[in-house]
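I have been asked to look over a protein record a colleague put together. What it holds is a sequence and that sequence's fold in token form. Please read both lines and tell me whether the tokens look consistent with the sequence. I do not need a full report, just your reasoning and any doubts. This is what I was given:
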Amino acid sequence: MGHVDTGKTKLLDCIRGTNVQEGEAGGITQQIGATYFPAENIRERTKELKADAKLKVPGLLVIGTPGHESFTNLRSRGSGLCDIAILVVYIMHGLEPQTIESLNLLKMRNTEFIVALNKIDRLYGWKASRNAPFIKTIKEQSKHVVELFNTKVKEIVTQSMEQGLNTALYYKNKEMGETFSIVPTSAIT
């Protein structure tokens, strides 16, 4: 869920190995979509992370909702169908109107979620490191890029606090359940 042009469909395209986003009218999602990811595909796609987490479900059904302001009803329906959500935020724009609307829908339904801080490749000077874990990629960035990233994260943490939400980068989050995790993402790098 999230505002228009935050990269929700592009992220799904990256994971699925598809190109749905380019076929949408004006590149804007206009319907609810669903994609099923079997557990084996999830393990394969995340093997670079070398995480020791055990997946206790047969897979994940991902429901994609449109971000344009005209589709409030579809976001409301989509948020009512999920057990967990991903709130997609464009790093350069922060919390935009439909992001805040989506956040309020999730809070109203007591839905657990993470924040995908998307399009990190748009940070000026970002060096791509295809499919590498974020911790490895951020270490390869220049001092300027790291400072810009940290500034943008602080802005989004502050905006989240203004909405009554505690957030932290996933690798710094010491209060799971109390604080929502921010996961930096990019469909491009």
